[in-house]
Amino acid sequence: MRLSSILKSAFVSTLLLSAILQAKPVYIATTAIVEHPALDAVRDGLKKTLEENGYSGNNLKFTYESAQGKPDIAAQIARKMVGDNPDIIVAIATPSAQAAVTTSNSIPIVFSAVTDPLAAKLVSTLEKPGGNVTGLSDMANVKEHLELIKEFIPDLKAIGIPYNPGETNSVSMLAAIKIQADKMGIKIIESAAPKSSDVMIAAKQLVGKVDAIYCPIDNTIISAVESVVRVGIDAQVPVFAGDTDTVARGAVAAVGYDYFDLGRQTGDIVVRILKGEKPGSIDVKMAKGTNLFVNPKMAKRMGIKIPESVLNRASKIIE
Amino acid sequence: MSLYAFLGTIEIGFIYGLVAMGVYLTFRILDFPDLTVDGSFTLGAAVTATLIVFGINPFLSTLIGTLAASCAGIVTAWLNLRFNILHLLASILTMTALYTINLRVMGKPNVALIMEPTMLTPFEGLGIPAMYLKVIFVAVCTIIGGLLLAWFLYTQYGLAMRAVGSNKRMAQANGIVVNEKVYVGLALSNGLVGLAGALFAQTNGFADSTMGIGTIVVGLAAVIIGESLFGTRSLLIIVMSCILGSILYRIAVSMALNADFLGFQASDLNLLTAVLVTLSLVFPKLRSEWKAKKAKKEKV
Fold first, then answer.
1. What CATH fold (topology level) applies to the domain A2-138+258-286?
2. Check: complex ipTM more than 0.90
3. Which residues of B touch A132 (CB under 8 A)?
4. Number of Cβ pairs < 8 A linking chain A and chain B
5. Which candidate, A73, A145, B224, B254, has a CA 20 to 30 Å from the CA of B5?
6. Hey, of A43, A66, A80, which one would you mutate to test binding to chain B, going by the most B CBs within 10 A of its CB?
7. In a domain, B28, yes or no
8. What is the pLDDT of residues A12-41, one digit of tens each?
């Protein structure tokens, strides 16, 4: 244990030293389509990994731009980044990644938090994609999500899903859920909410038809998740989520990625490129690692008991 | 700002120059505040992108996308003229409906064009670097569009349209068919905006259901910046000042993006943009006030 930690610190300090010896700081330009807790966590995780690998302070130039949810600004940011000629561009979420990929075919681009990089045409294949683009997909493991809900409600028949039909990520997630639910004999009832002000009504429409409400990873739904929680408490329907951050905001439980950790996995790819690997020879990675968060207080208010098996393996219990 | 970022700024400025011309046509010439553009920008992009993915020629796809956006304008005009729905409300209704239609057209919220042929593909063999090619291409498209629009407004028909905008009853009394001019004006305006959407999708590699948000604000800002800097001397100058206004707007955004050395953050972008646009609006007024004051003093 001690030996390994000594080795580790020696390793880190060698890296630090070698990094300091480099004259020019490493320039990483990051952009995200919108400022959002999960996407911000990706950026912070990335920064952390860079730091651990000796890229920080004087030998790192790290910029971050948010497109404020507007694709035209995303396009302008992409031009700015390419013009600044950084060592690596990190583009978070689909439109930002697409804008970066069309703008440059020489600067290494690492995308992150893109659900379906093939459909977004960022890469034509996941293994050794070639060219200057690779990255990390956060396609959720929906089987785990549905199994978790079934653990709470063994005779689960129908799940209601509010979602924004205008969001690429949630549409592909919903499609994956439907396929999986079909296999498990669960009925999916969807309810569209194009704006955050529609979320409350979308959730209310599900009451009486479903055994549980599941909030997918959908920026619109997540930004107004409190209104879904409100409906869940009033109608005694448990609310589950596709991401763990939402558990602290009132969902009963969720298995999902920790977006900070996703940022670290993105950072690993970035570090590999900084060490000389070609982006085209690095496989597109699928996000790894699942956390299980539970919120016993909310479970009680929504009239559901958390099974012992879930409580025992929870990685975090929200008090 | 790097050369690449500068060229990118100009490129997006030219694309939104088409939007500014469309907005100018409705807001200023027809006196018809039309918010349809938030939807027709996306519609132009969505139809074009979907057709290109289906394997249709990019030029033909762009034409169809532009015509689809024109139809959206006609729907707004129809709601207003046929059913007397307030113009602002009619356009909001069309815009709202277009959100769903755009999703239906694309079948999903985002269509990628990154690996598809675009209108730029035939020109890629000319040996011009991509960063210049895109700017030149959109500049040519927008300037031709601007010249055609100015020419149109100088014709008898265009003159009649301007008359409808400045005094509807007077125009009617002079034998101008008012409704027809409004239909044509809105079709033309939304067609220009749809063309901008189609160009944006092809130069940026995607059509996205969210891409139209705020188009009207950008278009209006460009019109107002252009007007306040170049005045309203002749129609040709006004139309060209729409394009210049749009480019200046983008430069303002770009400056906001590059202002991190002043301690700004990415999230300050909207405020910075608003301040820069406001300054460009306030400055000409202040200047004319100073001039008037000076003149007054000299008289005394």
1. Rossmann fold (3.40.50)
2. no
3. none
4. 132
5. B224
6. A80
7. yes
8. 555 555 555 555 789 999 999 988 888 899
